């Protein structure tokens, strides 16, 4: 499904952000990447759809290397990769349904994008997706008037509109209250179990990772230090992932 | 962790002694420089002011004739050489000149702005277009109209092209600035979904920018209206400015000038009301 091999990235050419990162994501599973902040979780996620250009390695998505694609091929590949962000990144002046419909624009023509031309079938699908995330009656609300949890659910519906094979979630619950956190994580879990979509989530909450993940990848200082089933995530393993690490200046740093 | 030698020591309590005033800022050499510059400038201005006044100038007589003219203009406005309908037509002409130049200018400026915002365009384009536009902006609109009147001859054509030219430079700058303020995450999100550039501009950038577009374009309309009046007088472009020029410099009829000034003020008031309404509609 998705296999990452020997991914390496350095932003400044000196300090390594990712060193030889390899893992794979299976369909129908929730895979969670945990690790201290600054460990490289976001860099990994953004390398997958090439929002960040990595330096070396291999990212096999459906057996094609994302790194070898030209601009047009990359755009087409991105159409089938959903992405969810910590701060939602919705187009706030537009309505919820307009935002959800953006998910299907990648495969449509220039003209359709410019004149917002959607088929009735697509509009129906968008409404159904909003109902699926429990926001049926908010379809015509401007997104700026929605709460954080509601915005994130619109973001999920938008990602689903892409009919994705995989959804990448970059700290999806970091700005949410506990109740919304549960709602959003339940939806993401449901997508993996019932729709067979691979869900790859960056998290820094270990308890949430334990509760929702099938598979956990622990990252520390740009390296994979844990790659196993969630039930094998012991306290020792967590301490290892979140251990104090030594930075390049040689002084001890707490990173949480 | 900050190394000990780089740490700033923060006093835990205010040192004892007479506490006259606790400063809110550090003493800053720049502030002293600015203050000194202002003092020098004020001194120079005060010293040179008397030399600017001509020898035969009598303040009393000048004040009297000034108030006399003001009184003629604002308290006794009436028409002599033209009719009210003619003036209304001329005002309409000036308004249309302003409207046309703003419309064409904003349409052209939108594309230049897309090509010169940091959110979408490469740095060399941003710098190239922005500095070119800055050069155009540095030259006043009336001068551009006069430059173009060399090509088109004095009249409305030169006025339309000249005012549009300056409007494009002005609006490109403000449109591009509002695009720069957009969060980069929004465009990144659209790219991550595989959207084409045209769709990103239409679906993500434009919805955010409509309020600032409307208000900036309207401000430019107000500027263009003022310029259209000035150009009517200076470059023979017609409109209320030309009538104003004829009455004040040809017939020396200040009663008539008064009527026109009131007409222009009335329209300016209407513009102000519209822009206020516009702001309350778009910034909800």
Automatic annotation (TrEMBL), chain A:
GO terms for cellular component: membrane. Residues 2-246 form the ABC transporter domain. This is Phosphonate ABC transporter ATP-binding protein. Gene3D superfamilies: P-loop containing nucleotide triphosphate hydrolases. PANTHER family: AMINO ACID IMPORT ATP-BINDING PROTEIN, PHOSPHONATES IMPORT ATP-BINDING PROTEIN PHNC. It comes from the Bacteria. GO terms for molecular function: ABC-type phosphonate transporter activity; ATP binding; ATP hydrolysis activity. The lineage of its organism: Bacteria, Bacillati, Bacillota, Bacilli, Lactobacillales. InterPro entries: AAA+_ATPase, ABC_transporter-like_ATP-bd, ABC_transporter-like_CS, ABC_transpr_PhnC, MetN_ABC_transporter-like, P-loop_NTPase. CDD domains: ABC_PhnC_transporter. SUPFAM superfamilies: P-loop containing nucleoside triphosphate hydrolases. The gene is phnC. Keywords: ATP-binding, Cell membrane, Membrane, Nucleotide-binding, Phosphonate transport, Translocase, Transport.
UniProtKB/TrEMBL annotation, chain B:
Residues 91-275 form the ABC transmembrane type-1 domain. Keywords: Cell membrane, Membrane, Transmembrane, Transmembrane helix, Transport. It is a multi-pass membrane protein. One of its GO terms (cellular component) is plasma membrane. It holds the Pfam family BPD_transp_1. Its main location: membrane. It is found in: Cell membrane. The chain crosses the membrane at residues 32-53, 95-114, 145-171, 200-219, 225-245, 257-278. CDD domains: TM_PBP2. The keyword Transport applies. This is Phosphonate ABC transporter permease protein. It comes from Secundilactobacillus pentosiphilus. The gene is phnE_2.
């Amino acid at each position: 499904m998705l296999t990452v091999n020997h991914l390496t990235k350095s932003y400044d050419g000196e300090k390594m952000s990712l060193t030889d990162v390899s893992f794979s994501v299976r369909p129908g599973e929730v895979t969670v990447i945990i690790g201290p902040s600054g460990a490289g979780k976001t860099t990994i996620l953004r390398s997958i759809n090439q929002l960040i250009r990595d330096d070396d390695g291999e990212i096999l998505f459906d057996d094609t290397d994302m790194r070898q694609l030209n601009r047009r091929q990359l755009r087409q590949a991105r159409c089938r990769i959903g992405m969810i962000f910590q701060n939602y990144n919705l187009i706030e002046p537009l309505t919820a349904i307009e935002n959800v419909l953006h998910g299907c624009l990648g495969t449509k023509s220039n003209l359709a994008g410019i004149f917002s031309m959607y088929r009735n079938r697509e509009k129906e699908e968008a409404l159904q997706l909003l109902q699926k995330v429990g926001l049926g009656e908010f379809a015509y609300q401007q997104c700026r008037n929605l709460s954080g949890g509601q915005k994130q659910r619109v973001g999920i519906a938008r990602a689903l509109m892409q009919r994705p094979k995989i959804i990448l979630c970059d700290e999806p619950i970091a700005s949410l209250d506990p109740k919304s956190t549960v709602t959003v994580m339940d939806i993401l879990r449901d997508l993996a179990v019932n729709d067979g979509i691979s869900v790859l989530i960056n998290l820094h909450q270990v308890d949430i990772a334990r509760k929702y993940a099938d598979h956990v990848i622990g990252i520390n200082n740009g390296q994979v230090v844990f790659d196993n089933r969630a039930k094998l995530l012991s306290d020792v393993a967590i301490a290892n992932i979140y251990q104090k690490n030594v930075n390049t200046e040689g002084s001890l740093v707490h990173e949480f | 962790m900050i190394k000990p030698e780089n740490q700033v020591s923060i006093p835990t309590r205010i040192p004892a002694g007479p506490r006259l005033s606790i400063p809110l800022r550090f003493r800053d050499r720049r502030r002293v420089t600015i203050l000194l510059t202002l003092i020098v400038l004020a001194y120079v201005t005060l010293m040179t002011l008397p030399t600017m006044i001509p020898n035969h100038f009598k303040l009393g007589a000048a004040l009297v004739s000034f108030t006399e003219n003001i009184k003629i203009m604002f308290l006794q406005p009436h028409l002599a050489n033209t009719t009210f309908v003619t003036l209304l037509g001329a005002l309409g002409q000036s308004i249309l000149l302003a409207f046309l130049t703003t419309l064409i200018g904003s349409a052209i400026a939108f594309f230049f702005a897309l090509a010169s915002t940091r959110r979408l365009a490469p740095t060399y384009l941003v710098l190239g277009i922005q500095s070119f536009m800055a050069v155009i902006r540095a030259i006043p609109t009336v001068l551009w109209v006069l430059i173009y009147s060399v090509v088109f001859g004095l009249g409305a054509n030169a006025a339309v092209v000249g005012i549009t030219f300056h409007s494009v430079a002005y609006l490109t700058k403000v449109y591009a600035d509002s695009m720069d303020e957009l969060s980069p995450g929004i465009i990144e999100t659209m790219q991550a979904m595989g959207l084409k550039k045209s769709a990103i501009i239409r679906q993500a950038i434009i919805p955010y920018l409509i309020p600032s577009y409307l208000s900036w374009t309207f401000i430019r309309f107000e500027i263009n209206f003022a310029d259209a009046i000035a150009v009517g007088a200076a470059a023979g472009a017609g409109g209320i400015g030309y009538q104003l020029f004829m009455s004040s410099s040809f017939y020396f009829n200040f009663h008539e000038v008064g009527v026109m000034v009131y007409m222009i003020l009335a329209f300016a008031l209407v513009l102000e009301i519209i822009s206020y309404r516009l702001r309350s509609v778009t910034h909800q």
